[in-house]
Amino acid sequence: MDAAFTAEQDEMRRTLREILGKRCGPDEVKAAARTDTGHDRELWQRLARELGLPGVAVAEEYGGVGCTPADLALACEETGRALLPSPLLATAALAVPLIAALGTAAQRAALLPPLAAGEWTAALAVPGPALATALGLTGENAPGDWAGGGRAGGVQARAAGSGSAGSEPVGGDPAGAPAWRLYGEVAQVLDGHSADLLLVAAHAGGFARSRTLLFLVRADAPGLVRTRQPTLDETRPQGRVQLRDVPAEPLGAEGADPLPALAATGRTAAAVLAAEAVGAADRALARTVEHVCRREQFGRAIGSFQAVKHRLADLYVQIQAARSAAYYAAWDPDQGALALAQALEALRATAGEAVQLHGGIGFTWEHDAHLYFKRAAADDLLFGPVHRLRAHAAQRSGLFTPTSGTTGNEKAAV
């Protein structure tokens, strides 16, 4: 494996950092996050037009750039540095891979080009606080209660016969007109309040024939009600999605099992999130170093005190280790969960120290140190927690599985 970055990758990072440096200061980030959509539409279109950012990992035949998920991870390291509020994660890291992996030829041809061009955005709606489980990050994503479980709660799907009167196909194939109806509620959907297309995980088959399927739902579908939710991290907007007998189209061939694709998407998304967290931690540390070199106490810069130097040095080592793990996971997504755990831990430690070392101003809403701390805490809640990421990775690797020759005492020790 050649881990060196290409000239094209370095140029993409340089251009993206330059654009975001001019358009994503702390005040601009807060203003964009507080708009109705939760992001700066003009900036999103510019990133799509000049860099092809939403379609970085989309095949060229569908209008994308045709790069690898590693390129998307490198781009997200830069968006993480700026805490950019954008639909990039929900669209490019979660929805697009699922459509590419599961969609029929007609669905891919109809949906991927507008998503790659930034004309549409998409969101993955998973019932309950179970996104990390559905993506296979903190547990096996076998069919179960996270999608409704055949009981009350979650989202339920029922077949509606040979099509729904007045409904149009989501994926562009007239033969695939919506023949299912969805009902239920998803309380936390990344960019769910503003996405043009929803991928909804729903339970079908009742309790006797329990199965989880993914469905495509248009933003203008009758019976769909969406409201923006207040969130801990305003740069990660979320919406409540209510489905009141909403027409939906199965993603891919009807009856196809989406769970392996969800797990594969989760591994790639974890690598992307890890790179994003590393970018945020790196920027938070740089701002803290700048502050302690400028702020004076007892006639000297506080950064000259040995205790402060040691704290900053420890953070630097932790971030560099997390960066190495994130880069490795970008080439080998199977390591994504561990890289994400290390990156989230590094971001939380760095953000906490940033608040402390900025002194009194670090605790104020006017300063942006709290934005990094909230990003760390919110990502830990959405995609973790860290200890569960590590525990599931250890379980998958067989780290705690006793061998056949292990004695009783050795098993107890394990």
From TrEMBL:
Which lineage? Bacteria, Bacillati, Actinomycetota, Actinomycetes, Kitasatosporales
Q: Which residue intervals are annotated with compositional bias (Low complexity) in the record?
A: 154-172
Q: Can you name the source organism?
A: Streptomyces lavendulae subsp. lavendulae
Q: Which InterPro entries match?
A: Acyl-CoA_Oxase/DH_mid-dom_sf (IPR046373), AcylCo_DH-like_C (IPR036250), AcylCo_DH/oxidase_C (IPR009075), AcylCoA_DH/ox_N (IPR013786), AcylCoA_DH/ox_N_sf (IPR037069), AcylCoA_DH/oxidase_NM_dom_sf (IPR009100)
* GO terms of molecular function: acyl-CoA dehydrogenase activity; flavin adenine dinucleotide binding
Q: Identify this protein by name.
A: Acyl-CoA dehydrogenase
Keywords in alphabetical order: FAD, Flavoprotein, Oxidoreductase
EC nos:
1.3.99.-
What Pfam families does the database record attribute to this sequence? Acyl-CoA_dh_1, Acyl-CoA_dh_N
Question: Which prosthetic group or cofactor does it need?
Answer: FAD
The family annotation for this protein states: Belongs to the acyl-CoA dehydrogenase family.
Question: What domain of life does the UniProt record list for this protein's source?
Answer: Bacteria
Region named Disordered: 146-173
